[in-house]
Amino acid sequence: NQLNRERYKPWFFYYPSGGDLDQLAEFFHRLFLSGKVINLDKMPMIIIAHSMGGLIVREALNKYDNSDKENKIGLLVSIASPFGGHPAAASGEKHGFMVLPSWRDLNPENRFIKELFRKSLPETIEYQLLYAYDNPEILKISKNSDGVVPLSSQLRLAAQQQATGQFGFESSHTGILENEKMIDHIFERMERIKNFYPESHLEIFRHGGYEVKLTDDYSPVSQYIIHSQGRYWMAVSNGTLKPFFPEQERFLRVIKGEESPKYEVVEDWLRFLKEYPEIDRN
């Protein structure tokens, strides 16, 4: 409820908690990072991951090259993530119990955990490592865990070495998500991320897209663009907004018929302009 919806658009990644973490990371990379499904162009992305989500995102970043075609990441925040695995996972395998794929991946001795930090993060990414240390259990010896994840796992040395900053909060594993100091810290770091687009362009972005029913002839990506960013694309197309980087200049030449489209999403946009001549173009 505290999120400024005019400045940020939240997306959520739902996944089966027992799924194979490497496969989930591959899916996360393709969906959010690769630029092949969701293409944010030069608009920076902020990733916030709690618990197991931190492992999925970190493995996805091993598949990320920070190339021109991929989406840009301005800020990464992990919260109470078991980067060093969990000792109970090793115990389960040792005693021959049937274990879920994700639990197997959490074994500190298995490949997934051992190779999780095999690749350094791009220098362009600010990484905030947040950890919790309040164990709510009645019987406890110390606060060396958050009640679920050992502190030593949250603060794995490799994770600390790659972090821009690290902060601890006296909360339980799930309680940290409601910790006001933690929330304020994240918002403060988010506010520092500068957007590539000028404010005049962002103002049009906030107007969203067009609520029209499109046929399956339009690709899923094109449908998403038209429904969520259509008014911005229209403002660039009709000259209300001036292009401010080379790709936009080329896009405008395509709109004017001076060049041929190279990408399916642009072809679909040209089709949209022809099929909906009555659409509001202001």
Brief descriptors of the model:
alpha/beta, 12 helices, 282 residues, 39% helix, Rossmann fold, 9% strand
Structural category is alpha/beta
The averaged pLDDT comes out at 91
Strand order in the sheet with the most strands: 1-2-3-4
Tell me the CATH topology of the largest domain: Rossmann fold
**CATH superfamily of the largest domain, please?**
Alpha/Beta hydrolase fold, catalytic domain
CATH class of the largest domain: Alpha Beta
Instruction: Specify the CATH architecture of the largest domain.
Output: 3-Layer(aba) Sandwich
Number of continuous helical runs: 12
Summarize the biggest pleated sheet. 4 strands, parallel
**Rg computed from alpha carbons, rounded to a whole number of angstroms:** 22 Å
> Which percent band covers the strand fraction?
5-15%
Low-confidence stretches are: 138-142
Quick one: overall form? elongated
Order of helices and strands: HEHEHHHEHHEHHHHH
